[in-house]
DNA sequence: ACCATTTGACCACA
DNA sequence: TGTGGTCAAATGGT
């Protein structure tokens, strides 16, 4: 018997999802405004905290609804809420959900890899990540990333549990609605606790040199770099500068945004957008 | 020196 | 007992 949750998810109209995305985007914008007002003493921290909660609620609501979008896969097989009894007994009470993407996703959280395993009947290793702030904040969110056998250019990321750390705020800004991107809105969260930029970022945008990078003038990526990004991903060639393990593609470099030593401060949105704006839909790929 | 990743060992469950 | 998940010492990069 189909669960009510699953039935409801399958019936959610696309425009409802879009509307939730839009609402979250507005909440994010409002939070920025409030933050400015808070600095000037016109708004209490409580108000800003409320907006944070609103934005977080949007994120939580969207997680089961939007998880299929980037992978373009059926809900039933790849993005269902795993509410069945058959789940890891070590994570009995943890909710899980899965995303299928064309590359390991940057989800705005900081992860630390704590292991990898060969999985039976799987060609590629499965990598295990926990929240970087597990010991600082007691955040028990984890994820597992594995390259998919049937289509080895795709990666499956299984999330287990929700973030309870301060990093949760960051995820509120992941995948803002398209209008914000198209209109070139800048969301500058002005936090120094954001994850440092992943080295792979520069391999996607060769025109941006790390040594020449000036955070003050890179409010968003120029269109030509976005084009390069898309076309570089569109090919199935090995990613530039991506490390190769003995088992093939090494996902560890792409799934963490934890402290690398790059002394630069790209805004989080810059690269969060990239993963959610580009759907890597085959029909849209340039034919070369 | 510090921190993240790697990797073999260990543990829990079916 | 096999398998998947986690731990922790070793290793490597900055």
UniProtKB/TrEMBL annotation:
What compartments host this protein? Nucleus
Q: What is the lineage of its organism?
A: Eukaryota, Viridiplantae, Streptophyta, Embryophyta, Tracheophyta
| Identification of the protein by name | WRKY domain-containing protein
Organism listed in the record: Protea cynaroides
Q: Which GO terms describe its cellular component?
A: nucleus
**Pfam families listed in its UniProt record:** WRKY
One annotated GO molecular function is: DNA-binding transcription factor activity
Q: Which residues form a coiled coil?
A: none
Would you say which domain of life the source belongs to?
Eukaryota
Keywords in alphabetical order: DNA-binding, Nucleus, Transcription, Transcription regulation
- In this chain, the stretch annotated as Disordered covers 237-259
Which residues belong to any copy of the WRKY domain? 105-163
């Amino acid at each position: 018997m189909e669960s009510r949750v699953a039935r409801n998810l399958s019936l959610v109209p696309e425009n409802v999802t879009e509307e939730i995305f839009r609402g979250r985007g507005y909440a994010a914008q409002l939070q920025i405004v409030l933050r400015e007002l808070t600095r000037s003493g016109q708004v209490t921290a409580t108000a800003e905290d409320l907006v944070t909660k609103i934005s977080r609620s949007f994120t939580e609501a969207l997680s089961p609804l939007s998880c299929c979008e980037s992978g373009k896969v059926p809900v039933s097989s790849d993005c269902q809420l795993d509410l069945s009894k058959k789940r890891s007994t070590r994570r009995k009470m943890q909710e899980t959900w899965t995303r299928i993407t064309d590359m390991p996703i940057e989800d705005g959280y900081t992860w630390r890899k704590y292991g990898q395993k060969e999985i039976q009947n799987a060609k590629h290793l499965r990598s295990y990540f926990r929240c970087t702030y597990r010991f600082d904040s007691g955040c028990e969110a984890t994820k597992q990333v594995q390259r998919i056998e049937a289509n080895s250019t795709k990666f499956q990321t299984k999330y287990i549990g929700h973030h309870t750390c301060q990093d949760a705020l960051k995820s509120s800004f992941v995948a803002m609605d398209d209008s914000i991107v198209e209109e070139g809105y800048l969301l500058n969260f002005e936090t120094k606790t954001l994850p440092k930029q992943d080295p792979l970022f520069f391999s996607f945008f060769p025109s941006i040199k790390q040594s020449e990078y000036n955070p003050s003038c890179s409010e968003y990526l120029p269109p030509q770099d976005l084009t390069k990004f898309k076309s570089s991903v569109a090919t199935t060639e090995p990613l530039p500068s991506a490390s190769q393990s003995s088992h093939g593609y090494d996902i560890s470099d792409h799934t963490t945004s934890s402290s690398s030593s790059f002394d630069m401060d790209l805004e989080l949105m810059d690269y969060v957008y990239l993963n959610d704006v580009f759907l890597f839909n085959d029909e849209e790929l340039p034919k070369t």
